[in-house]
Fold this sequence. Notes:
The structure holds two protein chains of two kinds. By secondary structure, chain A is mostly beta strands. Helix content of chain A is about 0%, strand content about 55%. In chain A, strands 2, 4, 5, 6, 9, 10 and 11 form a seven-stranded mixed sheet that branches. In chain A, strands 1-3-8-7 form a four-stranded antiparallel sheet, with no helix packed on it. Chain A is globular. Chain B contains no helices and eleven strands.
Amino acid sequence: DTAVSQTPKYLVTQMGNDKSIKCEQNLGHDTMYWYKQDSKKFLKIMFSYNNKELIINETVPNRFSPKSPDKAHLNLHINSLELGDSAVYFCASSLADSPQRVQYFGPGTRLLVL
Amino acid sequence: GENVEQHPSTLSVQEGDSAVIKCTYSDSASNYFPWYKQELGKRPQLIIDIRSNVGEKKDQRIAVTLNKTAKHFSLHITETQPEDSAVYFCAASTLNSGNTPLVFGKGTRLSVIA
């Protein structure tokens, strides 16, 4: 019954590999986000997406790409992984037309690039 | 774009004392200010939020104040308990458009000493 779920929970991989992280929400939300939390715990938006627009943080390398097969899913693809990509990646979702527009976070995916 | 500054970065208080965390924001168009609590190894979870048409909001031991003119907002926790120990993040965004990611402060690590 988890509202926002992510898989995998942990991901250890070698530099140069390509990997994907999946996110699903069952809240009926129409907007989803990806955040990166670095070792200093700083939370930074990477992408926000709904059926109308994709907003990309211009500091995110183009090796990162979001893919949304439907409104309930926003997956994150990462090509040519680098050591600096090691972080915790959080997916979140919200309802655009809600008065509060609270964002609910997934449990996070801990990525370690060796 | 929006920039959110948060202080202090660490805060230690004795159990039963109050804790105050302060944030400032730069974009006068921001009108939604949530606070998230992140326990070790867990996801950020919303604890309280405030919109710009309100100056103060309270929920049991937690309160948030907003000074729109000065562009700062604060989190107040009274009668702190050990389970309040966590990292707290302030954030700002604009509710006017549907696809609006949160801009987070850098977090405050609160330690409540029993």
